Amino acid sequence: MDDKHFFKIVFGENLRQKRLEMDQKVTIKKAASLTNLNEDYLGRIERGEKLPSVHTIFQLFIGLGISIDEIFKDVYMQIEILKKNGTNFHIHK
């Protein structure tokens, strides 16, 4: 698997985790509204099925109040671990 594939999966999982850790456990419907994104598209990002554009990532961070530094640091560290350990992985927490 390449870095793009790892990124899609890890980014989506981290985004979902951050959304659920928010003060009021924001639903995907509410998150879609806050970010001006389609609910189905947001779900596909969280499941690692879609790679969001830079603009979409920006909308997610601004709309949900997520720290850019924090999520990208987490994503980078998880990708490095996955690459080191091989491609058979499950990220769900």
Automatic annotation (TrEMBL):
Parts forming coiled coils: none
GO molecular function: DNA binding
CDD domains from the UniProt entry: HTH_XRE (cd00093)
InterPro entries: Cro/C1-type_HTH, Lambda_DNA-bd_dom_sf
Domain HTH cro/C1-type: 15-71
SMART domains: HTH_XRE (SM00530)
A Pfam family hit: HTH_3
This protein's name: Helix-turn-helix transcriptional regulator
Provenance organism: Calidifontibacillus erzurumensis
Organism lineage: Bacteria, Bacillati, Bacillota, Bacilli, Bacillales
